[in-house]
Every structure is written in structure tokens, then in C-alpha cells.
Amino acid sequence: MPLYRDGKLFIENYFMDFWGPILGIGTSSLFVTVSSAAKGGHFATLSTQYLLAVLRCSDKELFSWIKTLEHYGFIRHFFVENTSRPNEEPSNRFVVRKSMPLLTQELVNTLPPLVKKRHDDFLKLNTSQNARHGELWDDKGTL
């Protein structure tokens, strides 16, 4: 989903424009941080202390954001212990989703009116392009 090239992370507009208002700034920032750490792959390992420092949040907020990203299928989260260093804090291992999920109609209905209209316009434009090119959508309804 996110593209990492030459040390730069590219996030799809659909995520920022339409998932952003649903997830909120903290959860969106966490996803960008994890995606950046994955460097174009689908795996990232980050310590809790690092995430707390970068995102400037509490433990409670961080794990709430992780839970939200898992709920919507953006990531899978695991704790990984280093058995050779038993006193070391477990790391957070993330698996990043490969494709962008579209908002459900229920979520679209929660968007502010201006953003909802923009989402509807986006779907109309890209649905008509899909009919001509067949490139944007896959068989599961994801970008």
C-alpha cells in the first residue's frame, strides 16, 4: 500500500483524505510511522519507547491506536521477546497490509459532508476509469 523509494514514503491520498478523518491524527500518524519503518516491505519492528517518543503519546493512546489499525485491517501487531536478553522490553512487530481498504458505506456516512462529497466524487471518477481500464480496483474492492 504505501510505497517506499529512495528513502521516501508515499502514502495514498485515499488514506489521508478519507481514512484520516475516520482514524484521527494519532492513529494515522502511527500508520505512517510503521509504514516508514517497513521501508517498502510488509514488516516493521519498533520498540514501544521509540513509538511513544516519536508520536508523543501515552501508552494507553498508543495501544488504542494499534488496536484501531488492527480493527480496520491496516496492520497485524505482535509482541516479540528477545530470549537472549530476558530483561529487555519486548518489541512491537507489525505486518503492514498490502492493499488499501475502501471505506464501508457506514463509515462514509460518518464523514463530514464536504469530505463525503469528495469521497463520492472520487468513487464516481475511479469507477468510470475502472470500467475503461480495469486497473484501479481488485476483485475484493480495494485499491
Q: Could you describe the 3D structure shown?
A:
The protein has helices at 13-23, 25-38, 48-55, 59-71, 105-108, 113-133, and strands at residues 3-5, 8-10, 43-47, 75-80, 91-96. Helix 1 (13-23) crosses helix 2 (25-38) and helix 2 (25-38) packs across helix 4 (59-71). The protein is built from six helices and five strands. It starts with a strand and ends in a 10-residue tail after the last helix. With 143 residues, the chain is of the alpha+beta class. 15% of the residues are buried. The protein has a domain at 3-99: Winged helix-like DNA-binding domain superfamily/Winged helix DNA-binding domain (Arc Repressor Mutant, subunit A). The chain has a three-stranded antiparallel β-sheet. A two-stranded antiparallel sheet has the order 1-2.
Which SSEs are present, and which pair or pack?
Blueprint: E1 3-5, E2 8-10, H1 13-23, H2 25-38, E3 43-47, H3 48-55, H4 59-71, E4 75-80, E5 91-96, H5 105-108, H6 113-133
Antiparallel strand pairs: 1-2, 3-5, 4-5
